[in-house]
UniProtKB/TrEMBL annotation:
GO cellular component terms, A-Z: cytosol
InterPro entries attached to this UniProt entry: AceGlu_kinase-like_sf, ACT-like_dom_sf, ACT_Aspartokinase, ACT_dom, Asp/Glu/Uridylate_kinase, Asp_kin_monofn, Asp_kinase
Name of this protein: Aspartokinase
Keyword Cytoplasm: no
Species in which this protein is naturally found: Sutterella seckii
EC number: 2.7.2.4
CDD domains the UniProt entry points to: ACT_AKiii-YclM-BS_2
Residues in the signal sequence: none
Top EC class, one word: transferase
Key words, A-Z: Amino-acid biosynthesis, ATP-binding, Kinase, Nucleotide-binding, Transferase
Length: 436
C-alpha cells in the first residue's frame, strides 16, 4: 500500500512528540513519504513557530528589533536537536536566516518553520530531506501546477524511495517561495497523494478524528468513524477545523481516502474520509453538527415579487459590486433573505442597503443580527422521513427560535439560523436529539 503520511504542528512541537512520530513511522513500513508542519506549541503558553515568524516580520515592518523573537525560534529548534542527539548542522542555517530576515519575503520567512522542523525530523527518522520548493509547483495566483509537481516527484523518486518534505509552501515559476493558507500542510499532503496516486492519505493531528459536535459545547461527543468528502466539506466550512477544507479537492477525483488520526493516541480508530459510503439502513441519521457565529440577514420584502423579473438578481448585483460573498439565500413568494458574514459588510452595510433600495425599490428592508448558523449534516437524512420535524421539535423544546432554515439540493445538510445567544443551547439540543 502506498501512503502519504502528514504530521501536524502539534505532532512536531517537542522531542517527545518527535519520538511518537518515529514510533508511528516504524510501526508501518508503508509510511515512506512524510509531510511535516512547523513545530506547534510545546505547551499552552507557547507560541507556534509560524506565529513567531510572522511576528519577526511585523517587527521588521515597524522598525523594531526582531532578534529576540528569532532567538526564541532558534532556541526551540536547538532544544529538539539536542534532546534527540541529532547531527543536523542547523545552527549555521538558523544564524544565516536570522541575518536575512529583513531581506526575505514574508512567504519565504514563514516557510522556514516547516523547513527547519522537517530537517530535524528527517534526521531523526533517518529519511532523506526533500525541500518542497523542489517538488510543489505553484502558479503566481497560488494554484497548483499538478503536471509540473508530478514531473518533479518522478525526479525525486529516481533517487529516493522515501523522504521527509515540508508542507505549507512551494515554488512559483520565477523561483520564489510561496506559502499556502494557514493549515496548508494538509493540502501539501493531499497534493502528494494525488500526484503519486496513493492508496491512502494519513493525516496525523492532536485529535482522534472528527467529532459529531464541538467538545467545547457538547460533553464527550461521539467520534465520526466514517464520513464522505461531501459531508466533510460541509462540516469543515461550518467550523469543524480538524482538516483544511481544501485538502479534499486534489484527491477527490481519484477517490483516495483520508484517514485522520491522533499522534498521541495512535490506537484510536480516527475518522476515515471516503468518496462514497454505501447506504446504511441502520446507520446514524446524521454524521455531525457544526456551526459558526457572526452572521447577519438582510430581509427584503416586495409585493408580487414572484411575478417580476430581476428582483433577486438586482440585489445580488449590488453585493457583487461590493465583492461580498453570500452564505445563503432563502426565499418566499414576496420576500427573500440574504445571509452574509457580518465581517464582510461591517464597514459598508448602510451603503449596500441604500444601493439595494435604489436598485429594486423594495417595500421594506430589514437587517437581523447577530445571527449564528448551524449545519446538521448527514448522508442518510435524504432517505429517512422526519428529519426536519425532529429538528424543529428539538429546538422548540429547548426554547430556541429559528430565524432561518435552508436545505441544499444534495439533501445532506439542513442549515438553521438562530440568535448568537442561543448558539450553544441549540447545538446541545440538536446533538441530544440526533446523536442517540
Amino acid at each position: 500500500m502506498l501512503k502519504i503520511t502528514k504530521f501536524g504542528g502539534s505532532s512536531c512541537a517537542s522531542a517527545e512528540q518527535f519520538r511518537k512520530v518515529k514510533a508511528i513511522i516504524e510501526a508501518d513500513p508503508s509510511r515512506r513519504f512524510v509531510v511535516i508542519s512547523a513545530a506547534g506549541r510545546k505547551n499552552p503558553k507557547d507560541n507556534k513557530i509560524t506565529d513567531l515568524l510572522y511576528l519577526c516580520r511585523a517587527h521588521v515592518d515597524y522598525h523594531v528589533d526582531y532578534r529576540p523573537i528569532f532567538e526564541i525560534i532558534r532556541g526551540r529548534f536547538l532544544e529538539i536537536k539536542h534532546e534527540l542527539g541529532l547531527n543536523t548542522p542547523i545552527e549555521d542555517e538558523l544564524d544565516a536566516c536570522a541575518e536575512k530576515v529583513p531581506d526575505l519575503s514574508v512567504d519565504e520567512l514563514v516557510s522556514r518553520g516547516e523547513y527547519f522542523t522537517s530537517k530535524l525530523m528527517a534526521d531523526f527518522l533517518g529519511f532523506p530531506f526533500v525541500d518542497a520548493v523542489d517538488v510543489v509547483a505553484m502558479e503566481f495566483d497560488g494554484t497548483f501546477n499538478i503536471d509540473k509537481t508530478t514531473e518533479n516527484l518522478k525526479k525525486v523518486l529516481e533517487k529516493n524511495d522515501r523522504f521527509v518534505m515540508p508542507g505549507f509552501y512551494g515554488r512559483t515559476p520565477d523561483g520564489a517561495v510561496k506559502v499556502m493558507s494557514r493549515g496548508g500542510s494538509d493540502i501539501s499532503g493531499s497534493i502528494l497523494a494525488r500526484c503519486l496516486r496513493a492508496d491512502l492519505y494519513e493525516n496525523w493531528t492532536d485529535v482522534s478524528g472528527f467529532l459529531m459536535a464541538d467538545p467545547r459545547i457538547v460533553k464527550d461527543p461521539k467520534n465520526i468513524e466514517r464520513i464522505t468528502y461531501a459531508e466533510l466539506r460541509e462540516l469543515s466550512y461550518m467550523g469543524a477545523s480538524v482538516l483544511h477544507e481544501d485538502a479534499i479537492f486534489p484527491i477527490r477525483e481519484y477517490n483516495i481516502p483520508i484517514h485522520v488520526l491522533n499522534t498521541n493516541r495512535p490506537q484510536d480508530p480516527g475518522t476515515l474520509v471516503l468518496d462514497k459510503i454505501d447506504d446504511e439502513v441502520d446507520g446514524p441519521l446524521i454524521t455531525g453538527i457544526a456551526g459558526k457565529k457572526g452572521f447577519l440577514s438582510i430581509e427584503v420584502v416586495k409585493r408580487n415579487m414572484s411575478n417580476m423579473v430581476g428582483i433577486v438578481s438586482g440585489a445580488l448585483d449590488v453585493l457583487r459590486k461590493y465583492e461580498v460573498s453570500i452564505e445563503h439565500l432563502p426565499s418566499g413568494i414576496d420576500s427573500f433573505n440574504i445571509v452574509l458574514a457580518k465581517k464582510d459588510v461591517e464597514h459598508n452595510l448602510y451603503e449596500i442597503l441604500a444601493d439595494i433600495k435604489e436598485r429594486i425599490a423594495p417595500d421594506s428592508i430589514r437587517v437581523t443580527e447577530p445571527l449564528a448558523l448551524i449545519a446538521i449534516v448527514g448522508r442518510n437524512m435524504n432517505a429517512r422521513a422526519g428529519s426536519s420535524g425532529k429538528l424543529f421539535t428539538a429546538l422548540g423544546n429547548a426554547g430556541v427560535n429559528i430565524r432561518m432554515i435552508s436545505q441544499g439540493s444534495s439533501e445532506i445538510d439542513i442549515i438553521v439560523g438562530v440568535a448568537n445567544a442561543d448558539f450553544d443551547k441549540a447545538v446541545r439540543a440538536l446533538y441530544q436529539s440526533f446523536a442517540r
